Amino acid sequence: MTTVMHFINGSLVPNSSSRTGKVYNPALGEVIREVALAESRDAQAAIQAAKDAYPDWRDTSLTKRQQIMFNFREILNASKQELAAIVTQEHGKTLPDALGEVTRGLEVVEYATGMASHLKGSYSESVSTSIDVYSIKQPLGVVGIISPFNFPAMVPMWFFPIALAAGNTVVLKPSEKNPSAAIWMAEKLKEAGLPDGVFNVLQGDKVAVDELLTNSEVQAISFVGSTPIAKYVYETGTAHGKRVQALGGAKNHMLVLPDADLDLVADSAINAGFGSAGERCMAISVVVAVEPIADELVAKIQSRMKTLKVGDGTRNCDMGPLVTKEHRDKVATYIDIAIEDKATVVVDGRGIEVDGDANGFWLGPTLIDRVPTSSRVYKDEIFGPVLSVVRVESYEEGLELINSGAYGNGTAIFTNDGGAARKFQNEVEVGMIGINVPIPVPVSYYSFGGFKSSLFGDTKAHGMQGVHFFTREKTVTSRWLDPSHGGINLGFPQN
Questions:
Q1: Is the pTM here over 0.70, yes or no?
Q2: Of the residues 375, 392, 414, 440, which has the maximum number of CB atoms within 10 A of its CB?
Q3: With bands split at pLDDT 50, 70 and 90, how would you rate the model's confidence at 75?
């Protein structure tokens, strides 16, 4: 059985030990390859390669760095079906969904091709007599990226194109559940002309993560994952003097006002709740229905769920399997919790017929109505195809419900009332807001990130906040002397 290795200093590198993890095809329920699990010395080798490559890459012209990003963009665009197939094989999401993931990552690569404009400083002439002040933006050095299983292509591309174009060198630690996409991107970056050592892939688990978080040569960490791990990454990284952006979990609500187009709402709830089997941090997991429309809305959602085809992501299905058997089983337990908590299970996704191998990690779309807000079904980030409905009596009650939650990642409001929508966007305490848009993921030139327990650190992903994260500013005060400025003066400069 093949082993997915590290990619260090431009080459595939085996592990220094025999530690490996299993990589599954979730649609088949079988192990298709193994992945190396790094020891600290493997992580140190990757970091050292990035450190050694940094001086030359930092000093490479902006024009050249942009040209390499342009080359990578062309290669990625021409080969995106190939990358999508890798994502589908190891994650399980459908091919169109995987292709959409790659395309959103491609948008950040395109943003990075304009890095020369993003790195422009400022200049103030004659702030005092013959004194000029100007600012310059410079890279940090070696940066680490720790990415999750649910978007093995897109999430790394939220970070590394900007980091690289800004002049940093990178060590990427992908999820051990689906490691192959990272290797594919590393090889394509090399093909695009990226020098060896500038981009490295470190396979592994907590051992690799901890080395990135504590190693003094790593200047910054970008992370996406669950809130408990995001908190750990942020606290550990900052304790070791690093700049950290750690994007955590979510419990995204969709507030539906009585004047909304319920057919549009039902379609949107299906798309946002069950796309990628609900394994999205921007998935809608709670529909907050303002009465009296809940009964009608639940019926519309239920009727649409009957048309969904669950199965192998390569077979033109609507929804694929969950990523692992353990995760599937964990998500399924929430259906039992809902029953115990007196919620109404409208559609039970267990035991459904699928277009795929019987051994796959299947759980069909699940709809639970009248979910108590005290239930774990409501409170927990389930990260699966489980859509909850909570009924409220007013806009104010729905808003309070959203604002009282621990997370603040994404939310949406569905209404035809412009005043209500404007009031909502002003009052809701959430980082990304959709108005009649169920998954409000920003385009690449805006930034991605939430509030509260959904984001640790003060800097979001990509866009100008991404540029800010991967650079630091120097301010220079300059005076070129002529003979008239001679003599001793111990005071401050006078205007």
A1: yes
A2: 414
A3: very high
